[in-house]
Design brief:
Radius of gyration of chain B: 16 Å
CATH superfamily of chain B: Pyruvate-ferredoxin oxidoreductase, PFOR, domain III
CATH architecture of the largest domain in chain A: 3-Layer(aba) Sandwich
Helix content of chain B: 25-40%
Structural class of chain A: alpha/beta
Helix content of chain A: 40-55%
Structural class of chain B: alpha/beta
CATH class of chain B: Alpha Beta
Number of helices of chain B: 5
Strand content of chain B: 15-25%
CATH superfamily of the largest domain in chain A: Thiamin diphosphate (ThDP)-binding fold, Pyr/PP domains
Largest sheet of chain B: 7 strands, mixed
Shape of chain A: globular
Strand order of the largest sheet of chain B: 2-3-1-4-5-6-7
Order of helices and strands of chain B: EHEEEEEHHHHE
Number of strands of chain A: 15
CATH topology of the largest domain in chain A: Rossmann fold
Order of helices and strands of chain A: EHEHEHEHHEHEHEEHHEEHEEHEHEHE
Largest sheet of chain A: 7 strands, mixed
Number of domains of chain A: 2
Distance between the termini of chain A: 53 Å
Oligomer: heterodimer
Distance between the termini of chain B: 27 Å
Radius of gyration of chain A: 21 Å
Largest interface: A-B, 32 and 29 residues
Strand order of the largest sheet of chain A: 3-2-4-5-7-6-12
Shape of chain B: globular
CATH class of the largest domain in chain A: Alpha Beta
């Protein structure tokens, strides 16, 4: 049902969008997202993908065009990165509040200034509260699989929300690696046609994103929030069905060698793979503590229950953020996790690291240092609320 | 039990010389053999002529779970001899690693300090590329030197990725690769003591 190929992750992603048979792609090229939209433009130009490709003049326009096409009931895709995502910012809120199932790949990139084209999660974190479903991926297979799942989740009539599928710039987007590319007929079986319930239609006019006075705005926002929270049921169902067809299971919080682990590291995105190798190494050489890794796949809606379940036996939880919350207590993911655990009767010591900014590598050896230093901080304290890993002062 | 690490290869070239393409083709060949492999550039805005790096990791039987550049390579491939003066190409090269060098020099003429157990392979790839391709673009030629130095992939496995990448120019690139494979000289050092 699948063919194993050595392919660049960006190209595989574009091929997944083709297999999903997207109707409209509106995008503005920006490093490191470029290869995705270049390849899609090529597929459309060559007639391999029967879609409308709209080369817009900015990311704000890209999202605006996507909203129009999605509202008309078209299966809609875009991709961006870093500053491009921030230029979309205003429109992101509109897409989610208007319940438009746009699928967007975000090739995670640091924010200016100074200019950095390299990867981190600053762009994601700035868009945390935009009301989009947000899924993180760690390797090319997960990118392809979750791009397919994203259309299915977004367009489910119980969800109707836009989705960001996050992949790390360069460290994931530009890597050639083996990926099982599914056969079209299995994708077709998994992903039905988009049936948007109230598409724009001159014959049946509807108003979208209308004006809301104080008497109704609160109710609109509460309905939106409940809808996003409830979308987790569908996300789980879709991942389950995907597993039934393709044999790969995704979960909101994924555990690696955690069964007997009292020390847990938590990461998001592609660096999680390096962290897994570190866990293997530390266990194989008989490190005195049992260490394990949690990977947060579902960033929004935040999987509170799954997280609490995953950490219930841990003494120490070390969180690596790849973004700063300037002037905040910790990295943004760590703050969220602390908040989720605060009311638990029994909870681990939580230690916050920020690192891997602007594309800086975190090696297998670096992760070991983060873990051992994290254990030390948990037991002996630190003068700082969080540590900036590897920084030169 | 110690886990065997993937073979790590670092390629040094200049922007426009095709270091990234070299990495891509070798990784695709390894994947077609059923192995696990990854290839990626040293990430960034590439500028023609500036020193660049690309990386390959190959593992016979398990997925590669490292998302970071190659710091401790088993093999270093240098596409441009002029880089030796400006880049520390042997940085982190493993104790028993091998440096694969495009050079017009013979072994005696190469002024580079290697460890006691480190090995050296040399090929005049620029002359081969000029002769066969008509241009001094040595990336495909250097694939021949690389696989002669260490048989990380089979020659036959490279044919499909080369054909796919170069189309009507593939045959010339394959010939250049094969000629380099035949002509690469290797100096294997014996471990001391």
């Amino acid at each position: 049902m699948s063919q194993r190929v050595g392919i660049e992750v960006s190209i595989a992603l574009a091929e997944a969008v083709k297999m999903a048979n997207a109707d409209v792609i509106a995008a503005y090229p920006i490093t490191p997202q470029t290869h995705i939209v270049e390849h899609l433009a090529e597929l459309v130009a060559d007639g391999e993908l029967d879609a409308e490709y709209i080369p817009v003049e900015s990311e704000h326009s890209a999202m605006s065009a996507c909203m129009g096409s999605s509202a008309a009931g078209a299966r809609t895709f875009t991709a961006t990165a870093g500053q491009g995502l921030e230029l979309m910012h205003e429109a992101l809120f509109v897409a989610s509040a208007m319940r438009l199932p746009v699928v967007m790949s975000v090739v995670n990139r640091a924010l200016s200034a100074p200019i950095s084209v390299w990867g981190d999660h600053s762009d994601v974190m700035a868009c945390r509260d935009t009301g989009w479903i947000q899924i993180f991926t760690e390797n090319g297979q997960e990118v392809v699989d979750n791009t397919l799942c994203a259309f299915r989740i977004a367009e489910d009539n119980s969800v109707l929300l836009p989705i960001m599928v996050h992949l790390d710039g360069f460290h994931l987007s530009h890597v050639i690696e083996p990926i099982l590319m599914p056969e079209q007929r299995y994708v077709d079986a998994f992903l039905p046609l988009n049936k948007y319930p109230l598409p724009l239609d001159p014959a049946k006019p509807v108003a979208m994103g209308d004006f809301a006075p104080p008497s109704i705005y609160t109710e609109m926002k509460w309905a939106q929030e409940k809808n996003l929270q409830k979308s987790k049921d569908t996300i789980l169902k879709v991942w389950e069905e995907f597993n039934g067809i393709f044999g790969r299971q995704y979960k909101p919080v994924e555990s690696y060698r955690c069964d007997d682990a009292k020390i847990l590291l938590l990461t998001m995105g592609s660096y999680s793979e390096t962290a897994m190798t570190t866990i293997d190494k530390m266990r194989n050489k008989g490190y005195k503590e049992n260490v394990g890794l949690l990977r947060l796949r579902l960033w929004r809606p935040f999987p509170h229950d799954e997280l609490r379940e995953a950490i219930k036996n841990a003494d120490v939880l070390i969180v690596l953020d790849r973004a700063l919350s300037f002037g905040g207590l910790n990295g943004p993911v760590c703050m969220e996790i602390k908040a989720a655990l605060y009311n638990e009767a029994i909870r681990p010591k939580v230690v916050s690291f920020v690192g891997g900014l602007g594309g800086r590598d975190i090696t297998v050896a670096d992760f070991e240092e983060i873990i051992t230093r994290g254990i030390d901080i948990a037991r002996n304290g630190s003068e700082q609320e969080f540590e900036m890993f590897g920084v030169r002062e | 039990m110690e886990i065997l690490e993937p073979i790590a290869i670092r390629i040094h070239g200049r922007g426009g010389q095709g270091a990234v393409t070299l990495a891509e083709i070798v990784a695709q060949a390894a994947i077609s053999e059923g192995k696990y492999a990854q290839a990626f550039p040293s990430f960034g805005p590439e500028r023609r002529g500036a020193p660049v790096q690309a990386y390959i990791r190959i593992d016979d039987d398990k997925p590669i779970r490292i998302r970071a550049g190659v710091v401790f390579p088993d093999i270093v491939v240098v596409l441009d001899p002029g880089l030796l003066n400006i880049v520390d190409v042997t940085s982190g090269l493993k104790e028993n690693g091998i440096l694969v060098l495009n050079t017009r020099q013979n072994f005696d003429g190469i002024d580079i300090k290697l460890g006691d157990k480190q090995n050296l392979a040399i090929i005049d790839a620029t002359s081969i590329a000029r002769e066969i391709l008509g241009a001094p673009i040595v990336n495909t030629t250097m694939i021949g030197a690389l696989i002669k130095a260490r048989d990380v992939v089979k020659v036959e496995s490279l044919l499909e990725p080369l054909n796919k990448r170069f189309g009507r120019l593939a045959e010339k690139n394959i010939n250049a690769m094969k000629k380099a494979y035949e002509n690469t000289l290797i100096k294997e050092r014996k471990a001391i003591g």
